[in-house]
Amino acid sequence: MTSAILAAPALRPRRHANAGRWFGWWMIAPSLAMLAANSIFPLVYALSVAFQSYQILIPVPHRFIGLRNFEKIFSDGLFWSSLGVTAWFITGVLLLQFPIGFGIAVLLQRLRRHQDLLVTLLLIPTIISTSVAGFQWVQLFNYQFGPINYLLGLLHLPQPTWTADPSLALPCLIFVDFWQWTPFMTLLLFAGLRSLPGSVIDAARIDGSTGWQLVWRVYLPLLRPVIGVAVILRVLMTFKLFDVIYVLTAGGPGTITENLAFFTYVQGFRYFDMGYAAALSILQLIVVTILAKLLIRLTRRTLTGVAKE
Amino acid sequence: MKRRGFGLYDLLTYAALGLALFVFLAPVLWMLITAVKPPEEWLTTPPILVPSELHWANFTDALFTWGGDKGLEDSLIVASLSTLLSLLLGVPAAYALGRFKIGGENLSFTVLSILFMPPVAVAIPMYLFWSEMGLLDSYPALILQYTVFNLPFISWVLKSFFEDIPRDMEESALVNGATRWRAFWQIAVPLARPAMLAVALLAFIFSWNEFFFALILTRADVTTLPFILPVLMEGHNILWGDIAAIATLGALPVVILAFVLQKYLVRGLSFGTLHE
C-alpha cells in the first residue's frame, strides 16, 4: 500500500517524459520545416544540378554528365588559384589574427579598469556591416586623396594604388579582414582568460613566473580548447568570405583576389554555369561540414571544461 | 599579492592598447569626419582632418536624395522582423533540443551546420526558389532567408543554456499539474531572458548588416543600407560626404545597441561557447 503511494509521484514524471517527446517534436517542428525548406531543398537541388550540364546561356537541354563538373574543377587553373586565395586568407587568420588578437587579450587583462568599455570599442569593426567597413577602406586606400598615401608622400615613400595594384590587392584584403575580425578573436580569448581560475595564475606568480612564462606555460596550455574554438570558427567564416572582396576589389585586378566563394559566385551569377557552380558549392560544403564537426567536438569540451566552473 | 607601482610594463601595455585603439578606430573616425565635411573639403591634398564647419546637409542629402530614408526603413523592417521570427521559432526549438533531446546529437549538429553553410552554396537554388514563388525583391524573401541563418545560431546558443538550467522547477510545476507549455513559458523562458536578449541582439546585428543575400535577392523594391552603399560607390563622381553619411547611418544603430547592451553583446558573440 504505502509503496504504491510513494511510487505514484515517481511514475508521473516518467509518463510526462514520454509526453515530453511529443511536446518537444511539436515545439521544434516549425523550425525544422523552415530549415528543411531553405537548406535541405537547396542542397538536394545543388546535388542534382552538379551532375548536369546546366548552362543558362547555352540553349541546350540540361543533361546528365556524371562527374564531368567535378573533373572540371580539378583541371581548372582558376579554381586552384581561388583555393590559393582562400588559403592566404586562412593564413592571415592563423598568423595575424590569432597572435595579435591573443596579445591584445593578454594586455587587456592587465588593465585594472575599463576592460569592458575597451573591448566594446575595439569590436566596432566587427559589428558594423562589411559594406560600411568597405567604404571606409575605399576612402583610406584612395590613390590620389587618401590619407595613407598622403602620409607616405610626406615621407617621400612610393604611393601605391593599393587595391588596384596586382601585387598589393590581396594583402590589402587580408589586412581589412584582419582589421574586421581580430577584435572578435580578442573577445573570445579575453573571455577565456577571464574564466581561468585566479588561483592558478597566483600559484604561477608565486613560483616566480615572469610575464612571458605566464603566457607560454599557463595561458596558452590552459586556453587550448578556447583557442581551438576561436581559430576553427574563424577558419569556417573565412571559407565563406565574400563581402569584403565584392566591395573592395570585386575579385580583381583580373581574378587575383577571387577566393573559392567569390569564384563560385562568378561561375553561377556571371557566367550562369549552374552545374559547375553547384559542383563547387558541394565541394565547399563537404570541407565546411568536416571543420564544423571538429568545432563542435571542441565546443563540447570547452563547455564542460573551462567554462563550467 | 604585493601591490605594484606604475612600472615600465604598464607603460608598454597602455602604449600597445592605445596603438590598437588607433588602428581599429581610425577608419571609423575618418568616415565620421567625412560625413560632416562640406563638399569642397571632400577631396583635398592634404586631406582635411578638422572640417571648417559641420555640414549636416550631407545627412539630409543622404536621407532624401540618395534613398537613405528608404534604406533605413527597409533595414529596420527586415532586421527586426527576422529577429522576431527567429526568436519565435528558435526559442521553442532550442528548448526541444536541450530539454527533450529531440533527435539526439545528430539533429543538433545538423541544425548547427546550417549556420556554417557558405551562402554561395545555396544562393543559386534559393534565387530560383524565390523567383519561382514570385517573391524576389520582396520583404518576405529577405526576412525568411535571414531567419534561416539566425535560427541555427539561436537554437544552438539557447540549447546549451536550457541544458544548464536545473529541471527541478519545471518538474515540480508539472507534478503540480501545470501543462508542458506553462512550464516552458512561465518558468524556463523567464530564466532564459538574458540569453535570449544576447542572441536577439546578434540576430539583429547580422540581419542589419547582411550583404550577400541582399545583393542576390533584391533589386529596387527592397534596398537595405548595406545593399545601397556599394551601388553609390560605383562611377567616377563619388559623393564622398553623402556616402559617408549613409555609411554612418548604417553603422550607428548597431554601435549604439552594442554599447547599450555591452554585456549581452559579449555573451552572444562568444557564441555561447563561453559563459561569462
What is the gist of this entry?
The complex is a heterodimer of chains A (309) and B (276). Chain A has helices at residues 2-50, 68-75, 77-110, 115-122, 124-127, 130-141, 147-154, 169-195, 198-206, 211-222, 224-239, 243-248, 260-269, 274-307; strands at 52-53, 63-64.
Itemize the secondary structure elements and their pairings.
The complex is a heterodimer of chains A (309) and B (276).
Chain A: H1 2-50, E1 52-53, E2 63-64, H2 68-75, H3 77-110, H4 115-122, H5 124-127, H6 130-141, H7 147-154, H8 169-195, H9 198-206, H10 211-222, H11 224-239, H12 243-248, H13 260-269, H14 274-307
Antiparallel strand pairs in A: 1-2
Chain B: H1 8-35, H2 57-64, H3 68-99, H4 104-115, H5 119-132, H6 139-164, H7 168-175, H8 180-191, H9 193-209, H10 212-217, H11 225-232, H12 240-260, H13 262-269
How would you describe what is shown here?
The complex is a heterodimer of chains A (309) and B (276). Chain A has helices spanning 2-50, 68-75, 77-110, 115-122, 124-127, 130-141, 147-154, 169-195, 198-206, 211-222, 224-239, 243-248, 260-269, 274-307, and strands at residues 52-53, 63-64. Chain A has one domain (69-307): Orthogonal Bundle (MetI-like fold). Mean pLDDT of chain A is 86; it is low at 1-15 and 304-309. With 309 residues, chain A is an all-alpha fold. Chain B has helices spanning 8-35, 57-64, 68-99, 104-115, 119-132, 139-164, 168-175, 180-191, 193-209, 212-217, 225-232, 240-260, 262-269. Classes of the chains: A mainly alpha (309), B mainly alpha (276). Chains A and B meet through helix 1, helix 3, helix 4, helix 5 and helix 6 of A and helix 1, helix 3, helix 4, helix 5 and helix 6 of B.
